[in-house]
Amino acid sequence: MSTVEVKNIKNEKVGEIELSDQVFNLEVKEYLLHDVVRMQRAAKRAGTASTKTRSEVRGSSAKPFRQKGTGRARAGSRRSPIWRGGGVVFGPKPRDFSIKLNRKVKQQAVAMAMSARLQEENLVVIDDFTMDQIKTKDFVSVMKTLELDSALIVVDEENYNLSRSSRNVNGFKVLKTDGLNVYDILLHKKLVLLQPAVQSLEERFSA
């Protein structure tokens, strides 16, 4: 097991905590992290781009002019793709970009991402982060004290004041343990875990 210092919001050491090797000391497989991030980003795509084919555009189906005698190339429809206002050939249609991965693979990737942050010494555990009121200035002050300029803060239960205080600060995000994901872990330089969240994560990913 790895032992990590537990700090308070004043950046003072208040204890130590042992982290499970099953969750925080896995071999990091970059290809697996890549697959999961790709899956997450693909799932966010709307896939609503759409164009009309020649059968869908508005226009007469009558032959625009006679076949012979005009000196022009023959034409059978005003909706032809080579005419202005005609249909589009092989244009985009609404589609589903989602990629399917097994649940166990996604879980393993999250544990690997946390392991990577620990191995890089970019994982911080704090005992508590309670805010009496919603105040961005107070949140920024605590982040400066902890010497953090970009961090994903993981809490074990809904922390309304903390979430609202941090949401307008660039580079920071607050997530509950059940919403933890690979993309957000890798997007932020530091991973900050509240001490109660550590136990919750170990129970979730050790199962």
Protein architecture, described:
- The chain is an alpha/beta fold and 207 residues long.
- The two termini are 17 Å apart.
- Strands 2-1-3-6-4-5 form a 6-stranded mixed beta sheet, sandwiched between helices.
- It has helices at 21-24, 30-43, 103-119, 136-145, 160-166, 182-187, 195-206; strands at residues 2-7, 13-19, 123-126, 151-155, 172-176, 190-194.
- The model has no long low-confidence stretch (mean pLDDT 93).
- 34% of the residues lie in helices and 15% in strands.
- The radius of gyration is 27 Å and the shape is elongated.
- Strand 4 (151-155), helix 5 and strand 5 (172-176) form a beta-alpha-beta unit.
- Helix 4 packs across helix 5 (160-166).
- It folds into 2 domains: 2-45 and 101-206, Ribosomal Protein L4, Chain: A (3-Layer(aba) Sandwich), CATH 3.40.1370; 50-96, no CATH class.
Give the C-level CATH assignment of the largest domain.
Alpha Beta
How many domains? The number is 2
CATH architecture of the largest domain: 3-Layer(aba) Sandwich
Query: What is the averaged pLDDT score?
Result: 93
What summary fits the major beta sheet? 6 strands, mixed
Helical residues, percent:
25-40%
N- to C-terminal distance: 17 Å
pLDDT < 50 runs, ≥5 residues: none
Blueprint (SSEs and pairs):
Blueprint: E1 2-7, E2 13-19, H1 21-24, H2 30-43, H3 103-119, E3 123-126, H4 136-145, E4 151-155, H5 160-166, E5 172-176, H6 182-187, E6 190-194, H7 195-206
Parallel strand pairs: 1-3, 3-6, 4-5, 4-6
Antiparallel strand pairs: 1-2
Helix pairs in contact: 4-5
